[in-house]
Amino acid sequence: MRPAPMQIEFAAADTAQSAQTDAGFVAGGVRAALRLEGLAALAAAVALYAYCGFSWPLFAILFLAPDLFMLGYLVGPRTGAAVYNFAHTYTVALALALAGFFLGSPTAAACGLILIAHIGFDRALGFGVKYTTAFGHSHLGRIGRR
Description:
64% helix, two-stranded antiparallel ribbon, 146 residues, mainly alpha, 6 helices
């Protein structure tokens, strides 16, 4: 029995999608959803930062500071990815923000929210956590020239 044409199209799309995800990069609607999620995290962190009345000069100074962690790539791609990813995962950022709020440290809370905003900004632009193969290989796709 021969499958309907729609099933063949979906099977072909699934195969193409699978080939891309097997390579370690998300694609299509999943990639768009992750980028939208990053934008939502950025907006939420900025809104909470404003609500708390934290310093905007501090925000401006520290917003791009997490990118200094890419200096780990001077040691090599494995170390670089580990160091960069440490500063670009929500786990560390949320822990810092929550510790700041619960322990009564406005500086820690502000820094955690700035880190969440930075990570969200990166994700919204399509920059993800890095693989050890190269700086340009992230879970959201390749960065830079191919």
